Amino acid sequence: MPYVNIKVTGGNEAPTAGQKAALIKGVTELLSGVLGKNPATTVVVIDEVAQDNWGLGGMSVTEVRQRNRKA
Amino acid sequence: MPYVNIKVTGGNEAPTAGQKAALIKGVTELLSGVLGKNPATTVVVIDEVAQDNWGLGGMSVTEVRQRNRKA
Amino acid sequence: MPYVNIKVTGGNEAPTAGQKAALIKGVTELLSGVLGKNPATTVVVIDEVAQDNWGLGGMSVTEVRQRNRKA
Amino acid sequence: MPYVNIKVTGGNEAPTAGQKAALIKGVTELLSGVLGKNPATTVVVIDEVAQDNWGLGGMSVTEVRQRNRKA
Amino acid sequence: MPYVNIKVTGGNEAPTAGQKAALIKGVTELLSGVLGKNPATTVVVIDEVAQDNWGLGGMSVTEVRQRNRKA
Amino acid sequence: MPYVNIKVTGGNEAPTAGQKAALIKGVTELLSGVLGKNPATTVVVIDEVAQDNWGLGGMSVTEVRQRNRKA
User: pLDDT tens digits for D22-35?
Assistant: First the structure.
């Protein structure tokens, strides 16, 4: 009966439909394998977050990526 | 002062504006009726999740719907 | 297949087991009634938040309640 | 290592890229200043919520804004 | 840079510290394997939810478990 | 009308009531200053997460802290 929310950056870093299916399958199997949870009622929600809307180290990912390209 | 988050599938299953208004009204009245919470400060946020991004039973809803159509 | 998260204040304002059951039943019926969602796969999670940990108007609820008692 | 999620209304009220950068910088500095948290591992996610999908006082923000314009 | 939140039932169904470590390791490896995400900045938060506070099928898990024992 | 959720580690790293009040005040002022949001309807929820339940770099914070002490 677990609920899993996965947040990753979107835009040009967005996962493909195949990668999202692999995340859903993988995390459902992980919860079944580690905790014996029933896959039939395991819910997974993936959020793709715009790079302007994700911050790390006090900067948006947009800015982090620009700095990395320059460096 | 409650906060409620409702996640449902979007795309061709997305709720209409009228249905979203009915959810907001209904859940606000429920919290007022059951717990006596003040509607004026009850916050509701509805997230519409793409069908590729929602997993149940280890599969995306996109795949669940395709299997149901075939069956 | 919806997922609902309800956050309310805890401590001396915490809902009873009966009130929590009424919230779960009520919101599941709301989603079934408004959107035709299947109750069997509707997940509800209630979080009880300590009054020091909930802020409104720039103050914790602990302080909001103290001011209301004095007023 | 903190995680912060900020939800605001989107559409014609959506924050600009500059405002989002200011929120990310400001909240990261707040957590560093108040709790001594390491900015390098402080994660911030901003969600812009459609005005039909945000409820306050039992109404969507769309409806709240319409009533305010009329009043 | 992903963020993962895993919610499971607590109380007598709560995961052990070892199981929680296995979930953290497993989901971090999944995101690295499927999406190439950097494990160093992958954040995982596990919430253990009281059985009275988790609803499925319109009932709390407390009631679901009682019915299953009787059946 | 914004909603902010702040997650930090708890246990022996838990913020004091005074620190939590400072976070609530600070983030509410940030949203008012940057976006002109009304403090009266700004909601803040702080979650204190057990160190076994928070993962970074594929390990729980409990293990991260033990390694740092040994190093």
Answer: 999 999 999 999 99
Q: How many domains is chain C partitioned into structurally? A: 1
d(CA D5, nearest CA chain E) in Å: 11
CATH number reported for the structural domain that contains residue B60 in this entry: 3.30.429.10
Residues spanned by the domain of A30: 3-70
Contacts of E41 in chain A (CB under 8 A): 56
- Strands A43-49 and B59-60 come out as unpaired
Active site residue A2: yes
DSSP assignment of C17-60, as one string?
Answer: HHHHHHHHHHHHHHHHHHH---GGG-EEEEEEE-GGGEEETTEE
Mutation pick from F1, F4, F38, F43 vs chain B, by most beta carbons of B within 10 Å, is F43
Find chain F residues with C-beta within 8 A of C62's C-beta: 17
Q: What does the pLDDT look like over D41-57, one tens digit per residue?
A: 999 999 999 999 999 99
Catalytic entry in E1, E2, E36, E54: E2
Comparing C-alpha atoms, which of B10, B6, B13, B15 is closest to residue B44? B6
pLDDT on residue E45: 98
**Which residues of chain E are at the A interface, by a Cβ-Cβ cutoff of 8 Å?**
1-9, 15, 19, 22-23, 26-27, 30-31, 33-35, 37, 41, 54, 56, 61
Question: A1 with B57: CB under 8 angstroms?
Answer: no
Q: Is D58 helix (H, G, I), strand (E, B) or coil?
A: coil
Q: Which chains touch B (3 or more CB pairs under 8 A)?
A: A, C, D, F
Q: Measured over all CA atoms, what is the biggest interatomic distance in chain C, rounded to whole angstroms?
A: 48
- Give the closest residue to C53 by CA, choosing from C7, C3, C5: C7
**A51: closest chain D residue by CA:** D45
